[in-house]
Design goal:
Helix content: over 70%
Distance between the termini: 24 Å
Largest sheet: 4 strands, antiparallel
Number of strands: 4
Number of helices: 9
Structural class: alpha+beta
Shape: elongated
């Protein structure tokens, strides 16, 4: 398309947006609302994935060694644990360290209740084991259980399964919501452009009779949808950006250290690109769909 024709089409598109006034504004805000909901689910999905990764790093397997096992054998067990493929890290906690932890943390202020255990320590040496892939927890626990002089292996597979299920469900739900919102927004923008085409049907009819091509007639309406979609994306991005900024500020004020949310400048580019693509896609698709019917005049 020549530059002069594009300038004409763009000028007509801007006029169409102004002419439709309330309908254009309604479409813009409807698209913005759809994108805001889309953005909320996108950010939620990003944080669920991030929290899932953090939980994966925190999920540990505790291996307890049989009482009376010699120190040399305890050290050898550690080497056998680290030799297992799915083991990322294995840290030894001696029974003396476990007793000290019980005194200082679990029975703080009542340490005298454990005074008699110094000579007859009831605790066992143990290893805290961090896995590389928590989805392979069961088979790794089975391999750990086969090591000689291991009393028992305790894992949090139930917690792991819940985390993985929630993460998978969240991903599927987010995709479903995105598809529904995309369809709704396309229908709305399509109806807006249909109104514009209907109001200008006589003008379009005259343009076709004097030889204007379908492409020449169609482009201004497609650009109109593109403009509305773009403005809706910008508005939605500003709302989501400041909303997430306020949320992060509030969470920092609570000193919430259990899980760390994804940073604002990690989220902003992803949401911005997502909104730009979806906003423009919604606008162009809605216009293209409506023009297919109304060009046959």
């Amino acid at each position: 398309m020549k530059l002069s024709k594009f300038k004409y089409s763009f000028s007509e598109a801007k006029k169409n947006v102004s002419r439709n006034g309330l309908m254009s504004i309604a479409s813009l805000f409807t698209i913005a609302c759809c994108l805001i909901i889309l953005g909320v689910f996108a950010i939620l999905s990003l944080n669920v994935n991030s929290i899932t990764d953090q939980i994966k790093d925190q999920c540990e397997v505790q291996l307890y060694i049989s009482a009376g096992t010699a120190a040399e054998r305890v050290e050898a067990i550690g080497n056998e644990i680290r030799a297992i493929d799915n083991v990322k890290e294995a840290t030894l906690f001696t029974k003396e360290e476990t007793l000290a932890y019980a005194k200082n943390d679990m029975f703080e202020g009542k340490e005298e209740l454990l005074d008699g255990f110094d000579e007859d320590n009831p605790f066992s040496d143990s290893y805290k084991i961090i896995l590389t892939d928590i989805e392979k927890t069961d088979e790794t626990v089975e391999a750990l259980s086969q090591i000689r002089d291991v009393e028992k292996v305790v894992n949090k597979q139930d917690v792991v399964n819940i985390v993985l299920s929630v993460s998978d469900l969240m991903k599927k739900f987010s995709i479903a919501v995105m598809i529904v919102l995309l369809i709704v927004a396309i229908v709305i923008i399509s109806n807006t452009v249909k109104l514009t085409v209907f109001n200008r049907r006589k003008e379009i009819n005259i343009m076709k009779y004097i030889g204007a091509t379908d492409r020449f007639i169609r482009v201004p309406f497609v650009l109109e949808g593109l403009i509305i979609g773009f403005l809706g994306a910008v508005f939605a991005f500003l709302v989501v950006f400041w909303g997430y900024f306020a949320l992060l500020k509030y969470m920092n004020g609570l000193s919430f250290n259990i899980f760390k949310l994804v940073g604002l400048w990690e989220v902003a580019p992803i949401v911005g690109i997502l909104f730009l693509i979806f906003g423009c896609l919604i606008g162009v698709s809605g216009s293209a769909i409506s023009m297919r019917k109304y060009l046959h005049v």
